[in-house]
Each structure stands twice: as structure tokens, then as C-alpha cells.
Amino acid sequence: MIVRPMARADLPAAREVIASTGLFPEEMLDDMAEPFLKGDASEFWLVIAQDAAFGLAYCAPERMTEGTWNLLLIAVEAGRQGQGYGAALVRQVEQRLRAAGERILLVETSGLPEFERTRRFYERLGYVEEARIRGFYKAGEDKVVFRKAMTGA
């Protein structure tokens, strides 16, 4: 198993991962990843792979901030979830940000009961709930924002 920057050859497997998790329509992936694949983006994509990618992460800087980033996507093939692969992806994202001297990593998720496992995942990795915006996604569905410092500051 290796975590590395996503390459164009990873797109078919990455689309399958996204389809298996239902995070967003997989046909959106190519356009989302294209700036990174062309080397024209400050954001980055990572994959976790053996023969083919079976997980991915997408992280981007927050506009109008200094050193604040947002982990906008993390996905692991449905059959491999709960085996530490997601944590390995997050650790690699954090390592990249720390090495670049970035300050903060944010993660956003839903406050619905079915996302309890996701929220506990981030808490186990040292993230702290920083904000909760009631009814953000739709009536009755809060947005929960987790935060973790990348530096001692």
C-alpha cells in the first residue's frame, strides 16, 4: 500500500471509488482534478493504492486565509473502509501541510445521525469540533466543521 499524488492513470479507479461511496457523481471527478493533473493548482489530490487506487483525498487552501486548508474529500472503496486506509490518507495530507508550513486543516461533514461514524473518525485523529451551522445543507441537516492545527501555533 502506498499513498502518493494522483496521476491521470488513477482517474478510472478513483471514479469507481467515488461511485462506491456515493459522495458525488463520479463524472465530476475529471473536471475537478484537471487543474491538479496539469500542475496548475495549489490544491492537491492523493490516492492510496496497491495495484490500483482504492482511496483518494482532495485538499485545497481556503480563500482569503493564510495557511488554512480544507479537506474537501476523502473516500475509500466501500469494501475497504474501517481498515485504516482513510486514516493513512489523512496523515499524508497532514504531513504535506506541515512540511509546507501551513497552519490549520478543516474538515466539514454532516450532523445527521448516519454521519456519527464519520465524526468519530475525525475525533480519533485529533480533530476538534469547531463549529456547527444548523440547517446548513437542508432543513434539519447541520454542517459540522472540525479543526486541527498543523503547527504549534
What does this structure look like?
The chain has about 150 residues and is an alpha+beta fold. It has a domain at about 1-110: Gcn5-related N-acetyltransferase (GNAT) (Aminopeptidase). Helix content is about 30%, strand content about 35%. It has helices at about 10-20, 30-35, 85-100, 115-125, and strands at about 1-5, 45-50, 55-60, 70-75, 105-110, 130-140, 140-150. Strands 1-2-3-4-5-7-6 form a 7-stranded mixed sheet, with helices on both faces. β3 and β4 form a beta hairpin. It is globular, with a radius of gyration of 15 Å. The protein starts with a strand and ends with a strand.
Features:
alpha+beta, Aminopeptidase, 7 strands, 153 residues, single chain
Beginning-to-end CA distance, first to last residue: 33 Å
State the helical fraction: 25-40%
What's the number of extended β-strand segments?
A: 7
Shape from CA axes? globular
Mean pLDDT: 94
Biggest sheet strand order reads 1-2-3-4-5-7-6
Strand proportion: 35-45%
| Poorly predicted residue ranges | none
CATH architecture name of the domain at 2-108: 3-Layer(aba) Sandwich
What is the name of the CATH topology of the domain at 2-108? Aminopeptidase
Computed structural class: alpha+beta
Describe how the helices and strands are arranged.
Layout: E1 2-5, H1 11-21, H2 29-37, E2 44-49, E3 53-61, E4 68-76, H3 85-99, E5 104-110, H4 116-124, E6 128-138, E7 141-149
Parallel strand pairs: 4-5
Antiparallel strand pairs: 1-2, 2-3, 3-4, 5-7, 6-7
